[in-house]
Write a structure and sequence with these properties.
two-stranded parallel ribbon
Amino acid sequence: MKPTHSLRILSGSIAAFLSIQSAHAATIYWDGTGTGWDVAANWSTAVGFTTPDPAAIPGASDVAFFSISTITNTAQTVNLNANQAALGLIFLGTNSATTTLLGGETDRALTLGTSGIAVNSGAGAVSIGSSTAGQGAAITLGGSQTWTNNSTNTLTIENAVTNGANNLIVNGSGNTTVNGAIGNGAGALTMSGAGTLTLSGANTYTGTTTVSKGTLNVTGSLNGTSGTALNIGAGTFSVGEASGVSQSMGAISFGGGMGTIQSTNNGGNSFLTFSHECPAVTTTVVIGCNLAVSKG
């Protein structure tokens, strides 16, 4: 009886293993044969071919790749055509032309899971959304995530980003621009890449803003004029204020390395203020071009 009993256990283990495997995220490649995200025939399960088509379009448990490797220098436009979701987006370095994700005649929403966004070295410029009515593609963070741009071309997010309680980390050697507002939640924002993150919208998130590397350039606003708590490490926090408009921030704290805080304006009186004095730690912060403030 023991051999039979052992065989049953093994069979059950195999069934459980296959069930777990089937629950894993699918890898689906945009094949460029059409323009609609919502059409399975526009996707492929093979990196170098337009077929085989997937059983379904990318969903919340799937990573969407742009594009198959045979698309090397051809601009791609992808219309969502409905609210869509993906575990993450990866833009391969094999296509040096632009890739643009649009609403498709009606403004849409794209929910991204914990795999976030990755733009590989060699990839062309990536743009998600548009300021044109009907072509917007707002992003909802379905979990805390990282957006990494390692291309020399810019990753541009044109519309709103709803963060909720989810944290967003921006990384990579390349530049990222968010023209829409990041907000509607207490999630934090961290700039940790060597490039520049530009925020030009009226951001409303209330979590801590951290600059551990690279440059965070705020040309819009942070939480109205109230700002957020700021943690500055070996990076630059730059606020470009309009004439007569002042940006306040919450408490400031310091990470490792030497950080820089800059406040610039287009004329008139503008101020960048913090809620209380810097903590007594051995850190130097450069404010503007001429003044260095040391604590500790």
